[in-house]
Amino acid sequence: MFNSPLDGAEIRKDFPIFAKTMRGGGRLVYLDSGATSQKPRSVLDAERYFYENHNAAVHRGSHLLAEEASEAYEGARAIVAGFLSANIDEIIFTKSATEGINLIAYSFGNSAPSSQFALKPGDRIVVSEMEHHANLIPWQQLAKRTGAELVWFPITLEGRLDTSALDSLINERAKVVAITHQSNVLGTINPLTQIVDRAHAVGSVVVLDACQSVPHFGIDVKTLGVDFLVFSGHKALGPTGIGVLWGRADLLEEMEPFLTGGSMIESVTMSDATWASVPRKFEAGVPNMAGAVGLGAALTYLDKLGMDNVEAHERALTEYALKKFTELNGVTIIGPKDSAMRGSVLSFTIDGIHPHDAGQVLDQYGIAVRTGHHCAWPLMRKFGIAGTTRASFYIYNDSADIDALIDGIAATQKYFKV
Amino acid sequence: MELDSLYQEVILDHYRKPAHKALVANPTKQVHHVNPSCGDEITLNLHMNGNLVADVSWDGVGCSISQASTSIMTDLMIGKSVDEAMLVLNEFTELMQSKGTLTGNEEILDDAVALAGVSKFPARIKCALLGWMAFKDAVSQSQLGK
Questions:
Q1: Strand ranges in chain B using DSSP code E only, listed in sequence order
Q2: Residues of each domain in chain A carrying CATH 3.40.640.10
Q3: What is residue A191's DSSP assignment?
Q4: A33 by DSSP, 3-state: which?
Q5: Which of A71, A73, A378, A383 is the most buried (most CB within 10 A)?
Q6: ipTM of the complex, rounded to two decimals
Q7: How far apart are the C-alpha atoms of A240 and A196, rounded to whole Å?
Q8: pLDDT tens for residues A65-124?
Q9: Which residue(s) pair with B48 in the sheet?
Q10: Which residues in chain B have Cβ-Cβ distances shorter than 8 Å to A386?
Q11: How much is the pTM?
């Protein structure tokens, strides 16, 4: 019935937060990893160890601590690169995935008119209807600033990307295609090959929002074919305030910087400056060193579990949940109902009960879910709903958590007498 | 359980049968408010007769707390002068910000005291205030024209 290579209950022992007693007096059933993941002790220890032993501003100063801090920070970069099968110099630390996408959008917007990245009226930016606001608004606003046209892939009622008009959407004027790898609301995993092939055929770059994929299955940027990829550390067991932008080296070299200031320069006079090489060109200011080190520890933890095992575990959880949900009455899953090309994010509505109210009753049982529009307001409008309740699963969940959710939903229905 | 302090029966009653939830045409002022954190929306029509709140009607989507709170608010406000209405509104706002330390003055707030429990759930205070803030906005806009 439930068969996984990982034992969620055993993994929870590595995460101090699961010792907490919740509002109703029970244990924490954390089903909100799509919003942020919990942190294992090794990540918390790594941050503390950095501050207690190596803290100094990186890439400056000739003292021991400065050397050690730089080594720790660059070591974290190497871990991220290894995790994504990328080159080290292609890894840029940001404060978030949101910043990573804005970095690209503002860099393109700052380009000289002759640049390959410059956008003009009539050029196209292609997104999809299932984007998180973080991968919609930076492009929407770039389109407004440059006069470029924003167009988007619609989605089907099953919650899949509608690629029937692929060639006309990604036409010869397309300069950017920005798409999510896995929807944070629907769980849908998007087919990238045909999108990437078409985009490259017309000379467009492809930006991948990998916030919901990097933490959940193995990623190799060399085989994905995309040109840029962003993810946030905090959804991948890492600390908040640290994110990653990966980009193809040849593109990053040609791009304008986004934030300017200290650390990102090569040479400075009062009236001019030149830029350091990539990745430093995109890392102005003293970076989030401890955050990067924490992220390194997080990815190391995931690596030890094995991303194939993580993926298999989440698939088992998703299949178990999809099956269990069919036993409920008056509950509708918003998104694919089979586990093919689908991740472990499960959005649903309960007839007669607003998501906020459902979340409130579930909270009484220690069950943490996300409610509302999930930063994907246009998607909610598409389905004609105000919001959903969303359960998202991760390594520390097990079938007992899903049983608790199912019981909790039934209790919610009983409470509101629907 | 703790939940029952939030979902009082009177709240669930208002949720199931909300009062004045049908927009009345030709308002003195119409406002549209949203709660950006959850996507809940309300459109509120205010009819003024001089200094008197002649009618408040509304439509929208939201959780039981926001729907019940708006329903209770309309019952309370209709027939009051602007000054009286603002007094009630301030009393309710204070109750919502009380973190569970106030029970509410029933003489002023009537059914709205049932929402006192909301103040213990920080994430829900905005839900309870959505309709009230829309009303406040509509009144203040209607007063600007004077």
A1: 29-35, 40-49, 52-61
A2: 45-303
A3: P
A4: coil
A5: A73
A6: 0.89
A7: 30
A8: 999 999 999 999 999 999 999 999 999 999 999 999 999 999 999 999 999 999 999 999
A9: B53
A10: 38-41, 61-62
A11: 0.94
Note whether A345 and A32 are within 8 A (CB): no
Paired tokens of A123: 């050029």
Query: Residue holding tokens 């010792």?
Result: A19
Q: Which of A234, A257, A258 is nearest to A394 (CA)?
A: A234
What CATH number does residue B63 fall under?
3.90.1010.10
| CATH topology (fold) of A8-30+306-415 | Aspartate Aminotransferase, domain 1 (3.90.1150)
Decide if B63 and A372 are in contact by the 8 Å CB cutoff: no
Residue A211 is a catalytic residue: no
Burial class (CB in 10 A: 0-12, 13-18, 19+), A387: buried
Q: Domain limits at B49? A: 2-144
- Which residues make up the CATH 3.90.1150.10 domain(s) of chain A? 8-30+306-415
Q: How many domains does chain B have?
A: 1
pLDDT in tens, A31-47: 999 999 999 999 999 99
Residues of A in contact with B65 (CB under 8 A): 356-357
Best probe of the A interface among B38, B69, B121, B126, by most A CBs < 10 A, is B38
The CATH class given to the A45-303 domain equals alpha beta
